[in-house]
Protein 1
Amino acid sequence: MNHKKLLELALRKGGDFADLYLEQSLFHEIILRDGTVNAAGTNTDGGLGIRVVKGQNTGYAYTESSLASDLEKAAKTASYIASGKVASIVPAAITTLNLPDRYPILTPWDSFSPQKKMPYLYELNDLIFGADKRVKKVTARLADSTSRIEYFNSLGIHCTDTRPLASLTVSCIMEENGRRETASASRSFKMGAEFLNTDIIRELAREAVSRTAFLFLAGQPQGGEMPVVMSAGSSGILLHEAIGHAFEADFVRKNTSIFSDKMGKRICRQGISVVDDGTIPGNRGALNVDDEGVPAQKTYMVTDGILTSFLHDRISARYFNVSPTGNGRRESFRHMPLPRMRATYMENGTDSTESLIASVKKGLYVDTFSNGQVQIGAGDFTFYVKSGFLIENGKLTQPVKDTNIIGNGPGALGMITGVGNDCLIDNGTWTCGKEQSCEVSCGMPSVLISSLTVGGRL
Amino acid sequence: MNGKKWLEQTCRYALESSLRKGAGQVRVTAVRDVSNGLTVLNDSLEKIQSAVESSLMIGFFTEGRYGSCSTNSTDPAQIDKLIDQALASVRLLATDPCRTLVPASIRYNGPPSQMAHKGEISTGEKKSLLFECAAGVLGKELSLISVTADYSDYRRRVQLMDSTGLDCTSEETWYSLSAECAVKGEGDTRPSDWEYSAGFLPSAVGLGSGIPSDYALRALHRALAKRNPGKIRSGRYHAVVENRVASTLLGPVIQAVSGSSLQQQNSFLLGKLEQTVASPVLTLIDDPHRKGYPGYRLFDPEGMATLRRTVIEQGKLNTYFLNTYYANKLKMQPTISSPSLLTMPGGKGNALSLAGSVKNGIFVTGFNGGNCNTATGDFSYGIEGFRVENGQITKPVNEMVMTGNMLDLWKKLVTTGDDALKTTAWQIPSLLFDNIEFAGL
């Protein structure tokens, strides 16, 4: 591939910036169902995405072909976002970035056959069936991928990145007196086949069984406004939905985020800091470099209660005249990059979980979640609670399940009245679906929010 | 090579190569998509996107075992290498006698499925459509923050073959246009809303009609109506669910009658065949042969011929959606892998007329998150919409949650409208439910 020629073609109509994103990915999966590993899949995918930026506007084309004529045609197509007759930018000489390796691959997935993977799924199946006689069905899916990225842009930046991703998800169905319940557990890391070990299998088996068994004791809570204590770990979905999306600078640039006018202002109480971090080794949201050649970093969005940074791609960074934050991400070469989160979490506070619970007379404690959503402009966010407990007079009492919680981003932030000292990153298979699919993670210490609307029975 | 010829040759090559390598039985699907997209933000072209893409999927039914592989490579050497790797993996798996190709008696044997526009639309025409659409609101409302108009189209060709003689093809085009407006609300809020249209002909989005689209204007009016919302007291209310979001409530029902949920005993409708599961008002039909609408198809991804089916008849559950695998697993007859084009006939009126009959209710115009436990049917969804009092829409509501159980919900269906949108494969009209639990203040 003649990258210089392609960049020149892409800029021929007067574009300000152009980049090339070359990807080759290999995916595998095996599935255990009804006690046997009886399905396997292999997928290869690859191509080149060519982007041209003119001001805030983007031309994008991609091709799966490696023929020079097809690559050049894609470059010309993308160039049409600009309407000039000649190029105004000449691609700079290429310099290759030196990047850290936050996801070293000890055992490449390419060399790890299904034969070596299958015993882990059988062990998982046996542990779950052995743990509880009510277990009726177990389904487990092990997926791995390795993506090799090569990137060039007209600023002269060149980099390569090899990104492994491993995910193991297990679902369990139990039956008791004709009633069935189901729950699942998952782990995901950017790492090679060393991901598979006995500890992770035991953890997942224990979680799947305990989560499913719990549901037989639980019911939907009484609905209404009440204080909510979010447990450490996967409660980070609150940050992702309630504020993270609204901090993505494409929404801010278009003035459609509820936080558009809040830069430098206090948005929650002192002592609260929220980061989006691409530097956690092996984390599902970790990156060496984002998808537009910006090295990943740890970005403080909220520092001691003050909004200090949005999450930028190159377009928004240029618009706001700040440095990009390494959040320009894309699902694949088929997609143009957008500001996206990586691992989003709140830093530790000083309260203990026990003291947060003890401070609530009547409310809810929530600890596992399945999904969430936000309306960027209105600020209303939701997250779905798979399990938790009522809090009555400072103590956890009745188990609860299957309820949606809804709040408003700025309002909920302002109502965080306690932050625990037990921050935990959740390593489940979190996937963000903003226009494209992107792997992320989230985390949080235990947090008390003085009022949210809890869905439930009357 | 044109797309049609490429599909046929690629399919045949993959099929023959797999058989040569000892695959036993094989099913091959090749897809070629040509797509375009443009976005106008306010008064400038924000994005243009264009792509030609291919995919090849091969399912192996080898020595009683099943596996699959897929690629977007068109290089025969790469395809051969992938088949070798995939077959090596398949041979390590446990046997599964329930994995079979579609029986010849129920597979599709008819002519190509065709729902495609013949001509091409120029980029200039598409741009004009979008700029005209956005111009419909620019400068006409002080509180307007932004208007985004999106256009996309694709032409998709599919070829499906298997080693027992299945050979079917389809071609479809699809054109869509949407507009979204964000407006200044109370405080820092910026409520937004959208309008959308689509169809297999360019005229579905106004191309060639010469009439400027009013989607942006309609989106603007919707966004303006959402300003300054609030919660209302928790309680039981009538719920009018607008046509464009009503399928959210049907989703868990369809999932519960799918083979995978039933076979894994993860379904609140397990064992409910031939039983009453909903109000007698509910009749749900899968009507795949209504040409011109999304969801139209003559065969499913296995090559099974589609048929018109009454899924629920006056509240009684008539059928499950079973592909070959899950039908074999459950020792039942296969039906079809999934619904194609769902309709809910027999209703009358639209969302506003349904709301007009309600004394004390909530008009749900959007769902915000939520989920349903497929094993039990317990659900909880965030909602937005409007308060309905004495048949009048009075004020916008938000930050409320609708909670219940699916079996109970559908038994509370009072009536349905006849206003289903024709732009989605699930053509569900506005619905009126009685006595639904909402949590708010």
Protein 2
Amino acid sequence: MLDDFFSRALLAAVGVACVAAPVGCILLWRRMAYFGDTMAHSALLGVAIGAVLGIGLGFGVFGVAVTVALALVVLERTGRLATDALLGVLSHSTLALGLVVLALSASGYRHDLIGFLFGDVLAVTVGDLAVIWGGGAICLAVLAACWRGLVAATLHEDLARAEGVPVFRLQMLYVVLMAAIVAVGMKVVGVLLIVALAIIPAAAARALSRTPEQMAVVASAIGVASGVIGLFGSLWLDTPSGPSIVVAAMILFLASFAVGPIARAFR
Amino acid sequence: MPGANPLIEARGAGVRRGGRWILHDVDLAVAAGEVVTLIGPNGAGKTTLVRVLLGLLKPDTGTVRRGATASIGYVPQRVHFDPTLPLTVERLMILTGRRPSEAVAEALEETAVGHLLGARVSDLSGGELQRVLLARALLRLPNLLILDEPVQGVDHIGEAELYRLIGGIVERRGSGVLMVSHDLHIVMAATDRVVCINRHVCCTGAPEEVVGHEEFRRLFGPNAAAAAVYRHTHDHVHDLAGEVARAHPRGSDVAG
């Protein structure tokens, strides 16, 4: 089964989607969607640095994403610019810097640009799959272990801290998780669309959920469905796979508007 | 009367922000079974002081000590939960830790909102949410309740009921209470001590004393004092039957 490029693509998309969606729920609740985008855009600089230093693209992406997140925290402390302005600066300058460094590096990667930006899930290797499923499993395990604290910290920071939740540490850990999702998911939908795979299924799940846990599980299911529908759709219509997955997620999101009221009516 | 064994105690606490002291030289202690009401105008630093006491904010000067036996139940000020996060009352109750469902139901019963167990938090009225948050705090079996403006977003009738409820809890459980209020419109009849702050402790004492205090009148104006005095004459109507206000069971005549 793993010999078939389409099966590998399906497994990769499913693996990334079911981890990205619960992480995306927290992104949504914390109103950090654009923060996620910034981290993802910086991934291209990570690719370039990883290539130049020869440390591997995944580690390059992960390292740069975490660095950008920390830079944001430090810049926010100065209080001179609003967070959205800082995100705009960081997001686009790291993306541009990535493109420039990639061009200068004269590595073989410059020709893969479209793949980095929009994903190349049909070229996923067995090794990639191992990274996606292994990394994904670790992310999910960490997320599950920290879930209650993360939800509490998201809902009311002071209340959570007063009741002994290590809010700051959890927030840092969450940033690391988000960076890992970007690094792992880049191959599937690319740096420009990875956050879509986190945010859109989570947004679709909101109308169908009564508790945070329900929303995480439903979001995962919607993410997986988007991956499967998107890939088959791209095969059928001969469209690019990454964007097709995101379009499928969008359609499910729109459908959730209809399902919400219907589900409530029958409750 | 700062007891010998305070559950929580601040000494000389000061907080500096942007080059000025938003709180300075604050001494405050709450002992077991004692009900302390913290009042002061908007911007007086009441919530800052609460955050210092809870250990959420490190004071720039002074110390905060928590008694070895202190366990705190906290109801924060003006809670607004973002509706993007789906939440039922049941899930809110176990936000930071698992509890047996019987204990959850019991706590909600104690604040008279047992029927709301399965309700969406976003559907609750202001009063219902405050009761749920109070039940949450009780679930931790605290011997000190810290309530930051517990009646905010609650109408007048609900306000009186909520104070009566808190009075009843104090009576049953014997817990100490530190309650924040921005006016003396209703200070619980059960209040042992009022601490009036405006960046520092302006005056402190029994409710009757504080109302007569010059600093208090300056802070709240003659009208507030009049309102408070009115309450007191009202209390005295009750008192004709007994002798002193303290003769009442705690919180039983909150509505005046």
